[in-house]
Write a structure and sequence with these properties.
GO terms for molecular function: ceramide 1-phosphate binding; ceramide 1-phosphate transfer activity. By secondary structure, this protein is mostly helical. The chain has a single domain (27-309), classed as Glycolipid transfer protein, GLTP. The chain has helices spanning 2-31, 77-86, 96-112, 115-152, 157-166, 179-188, 201-222, 236-246, 254-265, 270-276, 282-309; strands at residues 88-89, 93-94. The model is unreliable at 2-26, 36-64, 149-153 and 155-170 (pLDDT under 50).
């Protein structure tokens, strides 16, 4: 009888532990991008080549400026790099389609890092979906308005769709084609609230923008060589935690910071990341990651300037 009671108690403890882990996963994912300093618990088109290729020499140098697909993996650093390079447009703008496509690859990167960090990807995916849905609604609205105007002019219905497409100026960006055009459109339509939380594209972009800085810094640190003092490479766990503390932590409350700290403990070792980005050693990883980090840097800085210009870096 006593053994049975002990078994039930043991099962109860394990059950509570499992519930606690699930709770942490869900809470960390949902709060990751929502936190801010005041209230951390509030909810917070050009074509490009996706078949780029990189060739490594034995000394780690690069023969071309492109990356090859890594067989058997969901995350492809070659696609991430291609999307990042396609995002900048004009002198200081960012196309939203390759920007969001870059995030789709980064989401796969997060998922590959394990369930605790991967839980964050669900919230990020929700953010990218919000902007994609806004772009879809805008396209439908433009199509409807264009077709209504053509019908009013008595244009043959069989030629309406062709005329709507062919009349578009390829150099003219729509409301949700780029960062700058989205900001201008949402401001002019009164969709951006500087006092209350909304699901505007600008506020959503800001949350993605903050998370991008964290990942950029982590990848930068991961690409660095051994510590001068010890001559050893630091663990990805320490690097990811440090990158988080220097970026996203300032927007999160105490509970979220503690859960993030737990999540980073479970990160895999460097050899896992070598396989993930399709390299053999740290020397090759440094070459690849420098290129990716620079591409992120260009996209991030353009977005930063656009948000800062319109005082959107602290949207609630």
């Amino acid at each position: 009888m006593r053994k049975r009671q002990m078994k039930l108690i043991s099962m109860g403890v394990k059950g509570r532990a499992a519930v606690a882990v699930v709770f942490i996963l869900l809470l960390l994912g949902s709060l990751w991008l929502h936190g801010n300093l005041e209230s951390p618990w509030e909810s917070c088109m050009k074509s490009y080549n996706q078949n780029d290729k990189v060739v490594f020499h034995r000394n780690g140098s690069i023969e071309s400026d492109t990356l090859e697909l890594c067989p058997g993996q969901t995350f492809q650093i070659s696609l991430l790099y291609a999307h990042l390079r396609a995002a900048p447009v004009g002198t200081d703008d960012v196309l939203l389609e390759p920007y969001l496509s870059s995030w789709e690859e980064l989401i796969k990167f997060l998922v590959a890092m394990g369930p605790l960090v991967g839980a964050i990807s669900n919230e990020i995916e929700t953010k990218t979906s919000i902007i994609r849905e806004l772009a879809k609604q805008e396209a439908e609205r433009m199509r409807t308005n264009g077709q209504s105007g053509l019908r009013a002019e008595g244009v043959n219905p069989d030629t309406q769709a062709h005329m709507v497409v062919s009349s578009m100026d390829p150099d003219t960006l729509g409301a949700y084609d780029s960062v700058q055009s989205m900001i201008s459109a949402e401001l002019s339509r009164g969709l951006v609230d500087f006092q209350e939380q909304t699901d505007s594209g600008c506020r959503t972009l800001l949350r993605l923008h903050r998370a991008l800085l964290w990942l950029q810094l982590f990848l930068r640190k991961l690409g660095q060589g051994p510590e001068p003092a010890s001559g050893r490479l630091r663990s990805p766990s320490d690097l990811c935690r440090e990158a988080y503390q220097q970026t996203l932590a300032r927007h999160h409350g105490w509970w979220v910071r503690q859960m993030a700290d737990i999540a980073f403990i479970a990160l895999p070792e460097r050899t896992f990341f070598y396989r993930l980005i399709c390299v053999q050693n740290q020397e090759e990883a440094t070459v690849i990651l420098k290129k990716v980090v620079y591409a992120i840097d260009v996209m991030y800085n353009r977005t930063q300037r656009a948000l800062e210009e319109h005082s959107m870096l602290d949207l609630p």
